[in-house]
Amino acid sequence: MLIRPAAGAALLLVTALTYHFPGHTWLQSDTQVYGPILEHQYDASLFTRELIVQHPHVSYTLYDEIVLGLRKATGMSMFAALKGQQAWWRFGQVTGCYLLATAAGLSAPAAVLAAAALSLGATILGPSVLTIEYEPVPRGFAVALLILGMGLAVHARFWLAGLALAGSLWYHPPTVAPVVLVLAVAAIRRRPGGLWRTLAAVGVAAGVLFVAARIQATEPQILFGRLTPELEQLQRMRASYNWISAWWQTWGNKWLAHYLLLYALGLAAAWRIWGALPVLWRWLALGLPLYGMLSMPASYLLLEQGKWALMPQFQPMRAVLFVTLMGVLLCVLAGAHAASRRRWAEAFLWAIPVYGIPANMWLWDWPPAPRLLTIVLLAALAAMALLVQHRPWGWVALAAAVTLPFFAIPRFAGIRNYPPLHTPEVAELAAWAKSHTPREALFLFPHARRSLDPGIFRVQAQRALYVDWKGGGQVNYFAALAFEWWRRWKEVGGHPNAPLSWYAERGIDYIVVAPGRRYPDAQASFVNSRYRVYATR
Questions:
Q1: In this structure, are 237 and 296 located in the same domain?
Q2: Owning domain of residue 94
Q3: Domain check: are 310 and 372 in the same one?
C-alpha cells in the first residue's frame, strides 16, 4: 500500500490548508479569459460579440472538452466544474509530493511534512507561473498531475504514472514536456526498464490530443512562422514575461542570481542524499532543473533571435518552475535525512530555503525582521519535528510543523498572494446587466485602463466587452486578435471623453463609468456607489 489511511487523512488536511494559503481565486487572472470561452461552448448564444471568444486558444488542450463534458453530464455550473477539478487535482499534487518523499527514504510522518512544505507554493519570478496555481486553469491542473505522475513513477507504478502524465498532457502540453523528455531519456538508458509503459500511455494521449485538435474547427495557431516586427513589439508590451530581455530590464541580474542559487542548492541537496534516491529519482533530480536552466538561453535563441512564432505559445521559460520545485523538494529531503542522523543544525539550514521561498520569494533579498523571524522559527520547528518524530510525543511537533506555516506565513511574514478584487459593487452591476440587458449587448469600461474589474463583470454578467486589458492576454496566439485588440485599446484610450454617439458608432451598447462622470443629455440606466451605466443609443 503506497499510502496508509492515516497518511491519506493527513494529506487531505494539507490539501484543505492550501485553500487558506497559498489560497485560491476566481476571476482574478486567466479564468477571466477561459470563462467566456467555456460559457460560449456550453451556450452558443452567450458572448457572440466577444473578441476573445472569436479567437479561442484551446485547440491543443482537452481542458474545455472536460469542462463541457462535466457540465453536460451533471448539469453543474462552470464554476463548480472548474473548482471541483481544482480540489481533486490539488489533492493529487499533495499526494505526489508525499510519494516522491517516501520513495527517497522518508518515513510517512516526515513525508507528510515534506508534502506540506511543498504545498506552501512558490511564485516563479520572471515567467509568472506558480507551483500551486490559485485559479482552476489548465497549467495548474497539469502541474498537479505531473507531480502525481512523478510520484507514482518513482514507486514503479508505471501504468498509473502514465495515466497521470496523460492527463497532464491533455490539460497543458507545454507544462508536462520537460518531465516526458527526462523520462524518455531514462527509458532509453533502460533505467528503469518498465518506464516504457508510462511513455506508451503518454503517446496514446498525445495521439488523442492531436486528433481532437484537428477536429476542432477553430482558427489555426501559427506554429512554424516568424514573428513580424509589429507583432513582436505588441507581444513584448502585453506579454513581457516571455522575453528574457524584459527580465533584465525589470530586475537586472537579480533573477539570474536567484535561479543559480536555487539550482546550486538543489544540486547540493541531491549530492547529500544521493545514496537514498532510486535511479529514476536521480534522473528527475538532475534532469528537470537542468532543463529549466537551459530553457532560458534556449528561449533567447529561439524567440528573441530566431523570432519563432511557436515560442510565445509554448513559453519554454516557464520550465524554470522545475528549478524551484525540485530545489525546494530536495532541500526538504536533505533536511529530513540530516535529522534522521541526529544533525539538527544541518536539518535547520536545509529548511531555511524551504520556508524562505514561499515567505520571501527572492533568495537574494534580505527579508524584513518579522519575515526573517518567521522563516527562522518555521525552519527550526520543522527540524525539531523531524528530529523527534519517533518519540511518543513527536506527533505533536509534526502536527505543528505541518499546519502552522499555512497561517504563520500570511499572518506574520505578511505575504498576500493576491489582492481582494471582488466587490459588492461589481457583483451588483453584473447582476443588473445579466437580468436587464440583451444577451448580445456589448459593454465597455472606457476609463478602466488595466483594472481587472471589467473581466470580472464579463463572466459574472455573461456579457461581452468591446475591449479590456486582460482580454489582450491572447496576443501570443493569434495575430488577428492581437492587432484588433491593440486597435481597439488605442482607439478607446485616445478618446477618454468621447460622446455617447462615438461609442454607438462602434457597436458598443453600454458604457460603464465612474459615478461622477455624467452625460447631461442622457439618463443613466444603472447607478451604484462605484459605477454609472449609460446606454449609447
A1: yes
A2: 5-411
A3: yes
**How confident is the model over 93-119, as a mean pLDDT?**
98
In SS3 terms, 8-68 reads as: HHHHHHHHHHHCCCCCCCCCCCCHHHHHHHHHHHHCCCCCCCCHHHHCCCCCCCCHHHHHH
DSSP character at residue 363: S
CA-nearest of 367, 386, 376 to 116 is: 386
Quote the CA–CA distance of 28 and 459 in Å, as a whole number.
11
Q: What pLDDT is stored for residue 1 in this prediction?
A: 72
pLDDT of res. 218: 66
Residues 205 and 280 in one domain: yes
The closest of 119, 113, 103 to 350, measured between CA atoms, is: 113
Bridge partners (DSSP) of residue 510 are 443, 535
Residue 235, C-beta contacts closer than 8 angstroms, at least 6 positions apart: 227, 242, 243, 312, 475, 476, 482
Q: What is the pLDDT, as a whole number, of residue 501? A: 96
Burial of 399 (0-12, 13-18, 19+ CB in 10 A): middle
**Overall residue count recorded for the chain in this entry:** 537
CA neighbor of 475 nearest in space, from 492, 487, 458, 491 = 487
338 CB-side CA count, 13 A:
22
Q: Are residues 465 and 391 in the same domain?
A: no
Residue 280 C-beta-side C-alpha neighbours within 13 Å: 28
**Both 18 and 47 in a single domain?**
yes
DSSP secondary structure string for all residues of 308-328: BTTHHHH-GGGGGHHHHHHHH
Cα–Cα separations (whole angstroms), residue 43 to 37, 38, 40, 47, 218: 10, 9, 5, 9, 17
Nearest to 333 by CA among 100, 130, 123: 100
User: What are 377-386's pLDDT values in tens digits?
Assistant: 999 999 999 9
- Given this model, what pLDDT does residue 217 score? 59
| Inside any domain, residue 494 | yes
- Mean pLDDT within 121-147: 95
The set of cell numbers assigned to 16 is 484543505
Residues 6+ apart with CB under 8 A from 11: 3, 91, 94, 95, 98, 112, 115
Per the structure, the count of domains in the chain is 2
Q: Is residue 464 part of a domain?
A: yes
- Does the CA dihedral 66-72-74-79 come out positive or negative? positive
> How far, CA to CA in Å, does 396 sit from each of 113, 353, 401, 412?
12, 24, 9, 22
Do 401 and 483 belong together in one domain? no
pTM above 0.90, yes or no: yes
Q: How far apart are CA 124 and CA 323, in angstroms?
A: 9
Strand partners, 532: 513, 527
Higher per-residue confidence, 191 vs 23: 23
